[in-house]
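step: validate -> pass
step: tokenize input -> pass
step: predict -> running
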Amino acid sequence: SACYVPSLQLSRLAQQTRRARGLGSGGRLLLVTTTNPRYRYRFDATPQGAELEAYWAWQLRFLQALPSDFHGRVRYQPHCHEYHGGQIHKRLQAECPWLEWGSFPWKRGLPLTRLAVVDHLGTPALEALAANVPTLLFWEPERWPVRPEAEPYLEDLRRAGILWPTPEEAATAAERLFPEPAAWWGRPTVQEARRRFVERFARTDPDSVGALAKALESELEQVRA
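step: predict -> pass
step: emit ->
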């Protein structure tokens, strides 16, 4: 049977976030985004090249679907590398001049984020769920395909209202939940869906080093046997 060991990095992030967590009225909605180089240098299941135009269009659809009272309460968190000469920054400034632009690593502000929204299937989605921060997800399935065995876990997130099929539906959920996202996030059905996903894809453990050592010892015993 497969042995899933906890991630040292995610375990540390979860503990740091739990210690610093604060869901005050000043918390922001944090839209966490990504990007990729203009030219493909490896083959993976993420938007590349011209496909990024459609991905950026989904970002804009989400932002434009938010009501005007969200203006000044949304921080756009870009990828740490800007591969396209600030192209998306210029576009969003023109379309959404009210948007605040994140200027530091997103994990630094994670404990003070009231609601995280991640628009792609990648590391930030795993980090937000592992840190147990109220989170909404949306992405275009055709551009972020998953293995068949992962689909039941995503379906759990859909049923719990964490994962949404369109930017507009995610924006509607954000509007509905934003006053008190912690109340929704604490529901048993939501936490169970989150826990099940994290246990499989982003496992954490307060004693992650000890858990990893035990797993390695177990593997060595099997090899010796």
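step: describe -> The chain is about 45% helix and 10% strand.
step: cleanup -> pass
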